[in-house]
């Protein structure tokens, strides 16, 4: 049975940019499960699967509807234990929670400051209005004020990525000898900027850049199939 996968897009449907949705796309491909991508814009998310979630990704697997990228990964792991593991065991799942926390609290903040205006500009007009209102209320400043921190965020990025760089000097993947969900968590953040701002955040010679290029090529080039912003 084909899994229905609801993901976020802007005005250009060829660039589904949500970092959280990319975690789910890569997870489904990792498990080798057939899935149908259904694209939704910000203002239509409340209509997905009867309003089950305020955010996407959301999947429908038969009668089961699951929201949240980590919950989806855990569901796929539990229901398809015969397929390649996303966590490599219970300990790996617990450690992926730490990677998720670091990514959400540290890395996403840097990505937001770098790409926020690009994300806004990539949306259709109705979604731009929603995005501006909701984000400015959340951050207590205008999008333009946030964007003023772009140069500073780019300058600080090498230090921000230092834990990841140090790890990837010692092993090919965050997951060790092969990619796991932890890799997809961090990949989603860098893919977010690639698809909205079109910025090359790290050189290919950098361990992080090399890892990201290899992530783009995973699962028959799933990540690379979405063209970078120009």
From TrEMBL:
InterPro entries assigned to the protein according to its UniProt record, in alphabetical order: Glutathione-S-Trfase_C_sf, Glutathione_S-Trfase_N, GST_Omega/HSP26, GST_UstS-like_C, Thioredoxin-like_sf
KW Transferase (keyword) present: yes
Annotated keywords: Transferase
Statement: the UniProt record of this protein carries the keyword Transferase: yes
GO CC annotations on file: cytoplasm
Gene Ontology molecular-function annotations: transferase activity
PROSITE patterns according to UniProt: GST_NTER
UniProt xrefs under PANTHER family: GLUTATHIONE S-TRANSFERASE OMEGA, PTHR43968
Stated name of the protein: Glutathione S-transferase
């Amino acid at each position: 049975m084909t899994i229905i996968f609801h993901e976020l897009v802007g005005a250009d449907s060829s660039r589904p940019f949500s970092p959280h949705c990319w975690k789910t796309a890569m997870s489904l491909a990792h498990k080798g499960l057939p899935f149908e991508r259904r694209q939704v814009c910000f203002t239509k998310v409340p209509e997905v699967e009867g309003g089950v979630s305020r955010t996407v990704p959301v999947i429908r697997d038969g009668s089961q509807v699951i929201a949240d990228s980590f919950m989806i990964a855990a569901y796929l792991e539990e229901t398809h234990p015969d397929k390649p593991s996303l966590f490599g065991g219970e300990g790996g799942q617990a450690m992926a929670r730490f990677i998720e926390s670091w990514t959400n609290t540290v890395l996403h903040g840097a990505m937001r400051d770098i790409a926020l205006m690009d994300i806004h500009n990539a949306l259709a007009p109705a979604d731009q209005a929603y995005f501006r209102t909701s984000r400015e209320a959340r951050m207590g400043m205008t999008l333009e004020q946030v964007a003023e921190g772009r140069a500073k965020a780019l300058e600080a990025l090498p230090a921000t990525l230092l834990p990841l760089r140090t790890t990837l000097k010692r092993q090919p993947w965050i997951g060790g000898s092969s990619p796991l969900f932890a890799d997809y968590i961090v990949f989603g953040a860098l893919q977010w900027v690639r698809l909205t701002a079109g910025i090359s955040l790290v050189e290919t010679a950098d361990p992080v850049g090399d890892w990201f290029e290899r992530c783009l090529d995973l699962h028959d080039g799933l990540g690379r199939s979405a063209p970078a912003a120009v």
